[in-house]
Amino acid sequence: MADRPYPGVLLDLLRAAGDRVVFEEPDRVTTGAQLLALTGRIGGGLARAGIKPGDGVALAVGVTAEALATVLAAHAAGARVTGIRPGLPGRHLAHVLGQGDAAVIVDAGRAASVPAVPHLRTVASLRDGPDEEPVPLARPDDIARVIHTSGSTGLPKGALQTYAALAAGWAPHPERWPLALRRLAPRLGRHLVFGTLASQVMFEYGTMALAAGGTLVAAAPDLPGAIIRHRATSTVITVPKLRAVVAAARAARAGPATLRALMVSGSPLDPALLAEALDVLGPVVFHGYGQTEAGMISMAAPEEMADPRVRASVGRPPAENTVEIRDAAGHPVPPGDIGEVFVRTPVQACGYLGDPAESAAVFTDGWVRTRDLGRVDPDGYLHLAGRTRDVIIVNANVQYAVPIERVLAAHPSVAEACVVGVPSAATGEAVHAYVVPAAGDLDLALLRGLVRAELGADAVPDRITVIDRVPLTPAGKPDRDALRRWT
């Protein structure tokens, strides 16, 4: 099985599932055998449309059996597959659609959101042919996926992942699951999916659920309502959505009864929120760190998080991954020191589409330069300190945004904190903190004192601004550029 071209292992999972329900929608269920047949018919439609190995195929699909079959069929065809995320700003959408794909495929739920472009086809037009056995045609060195970054610093960059990298992935291979994922797998019985199955994260956890014998359950992303309605046991969740689930559970004095696993994705999770989530929801939160360019880098399971030092980390990298912390000159730093995180993973991308200069800057000598700052503690847990561009130089001393945010957010009066650097005639740069109150009035002098005691005088916010909410990028991450524009 390991030697078969990707996605042979996924097709084998469907064959093995047979009459077991693998996909559930509000109005129907789909078995493994039915999904395999649907993949074959859509694959035949792609072949009749002239799609061959190496051709680009952009997918604007939702969370239906046809959507999953279309993703599988496109990979079986050996195409270069680009997933189009719902809700892309117009400029980002035009950029993604302008990358020379041989076909743009939409399903009924997404058709209205995609403008008329050449080679536009519908899933319905592909699926109505004769039954065919899906046969993987991928070549290992061909590009399998173009995974776009959030575009928080400009237009989204398209990270290129080969079929060899996809075949090296952990998701459909129980024998490759590291400890945290082995603890996660039994909890994926009814795994909630939403948004698009062409998403890197949604697809990876979805295929892991199938490998664990679970069922994918299609839903709207109205958490926690969807978890309750569909009796879901697990789902992927962003930090803002986790806040909403925790608040709802606290108000109801109980979390969703069936919930067993929440995989937090998209942005770092504040230890104070993580502690509250574990307290209110129970041991269900899996917290980790990954990047578009490298896949999953590290993860911590709930069983590890009784230790507050682990809650402050983003977990431990599995043995297959290598993490190195380097200084500004590219040299490894002493153990425990903060530097830039460089990683090597079996599934890492090999460059950016149409951007050789940025490719050379990020993909260096087999390593991925994450542009995140971090350190590794004596137990091997990785701790993040922010992005390299989130360094604030105060009186010629380096301050990191994330530790300041964590001190502020740890106080019960603060629901959320976000820190940026601003120019200062007195100190070169100064810390400006934006805080969202949890309840009541904030004692700003007290908050400054907490930062001073924990991190020193130069880390103390020169200004603290109270806001109703932290602005988010389209990918759901804190929008620091928007905050800088407010200063």
What would the keywords be for this entry?
25 strands, 3 domains, GMP Synthetase, Chain A, domain 3, 8-stranded mixed sheet, 7-stranded mixed sheet, 16 helices, alpha/beta, Rossmann fold, globular, 487 residues
Question: Could you describe the 3D structure shown?
Answer:
The protein is α/β, with parallel strands linked by helices and 487 residues long. It has 3 domains: 8-167, Rossmann fold; 174-387, Rossmann fold; 395-486, 2-Layer Sandwich (GMP Synthetase, Chain A, domain 3). The protein contains 16 helices and 25 strands. The protein has an 8-stranded mixed sheet with strand order 2-1-10-9-11-12-13-14, sandwiched between helices. A 7-stranded mixed sheet has the order 6-5-3-4-7-8-17. α2 packs across α3 (65-76) and α14 crosses α15. The longest helix has 17 residues, at 32-48. The protein is globular and about 70 Å long. It starts with 7 loop residues before the first helix and ends with a helix. Residues 18-353 form the AMP-dependent synthetase/ligase domain. This is Acyl-CoA synthetase (AMP-forming)/AMP-acid ligase II. Keywords: Ligase. InterPro entries: AMP-bd_C, AMP-bd_C_sf, AMP-binding_CS, AMP-dep_synth/lig_dom, ANL_N_sf, ATP-dep_AMP-bd_enzyme.
